[in-house]
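Entry for the shared binder. Reason: the reviewer on the internal report wants the predicted structure included alongside the sequence.
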Amino acid sequence: MTMVTPLRILGDMSLPPSVVSAPFHVGAKGRVVLPAAVRRAASIAEGDQVVARPVGEGRVVIETVRSIRERVWGAAPDASGLDTTTEVRAMRAEDNDVSDQGFARRAAVNGSETDSAAAGAALLARLGL
């Protein structure tokens, strides 16, 4: 069995020419400085807000907040041609209809407020109050 040092393994790995790669070190307090070639290739400029997330042992993805926002909005369904005000009003009308139907059902079972008031008054009269 031949033992190969990790540096030898990394040296044998070749990346496509379009991939920019540069080694760098993790410094004090976990700080890193991305090499300029990597920043340029990823369109990361000074002052950009970035997010780092682990994607496995020894792997981290660093993305700008801008690129995350673009990805999220890109995945959202196309809202063109929708009238959200009309849709909200339609949902509100539907909710009101459901509520009115429930009230009518309860009134049919329990009687109306007038019936309840009359029954209460009759009960009080019977009790002499």
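Summary line for the report: The two ends are 104 Å apart (CA to CA).
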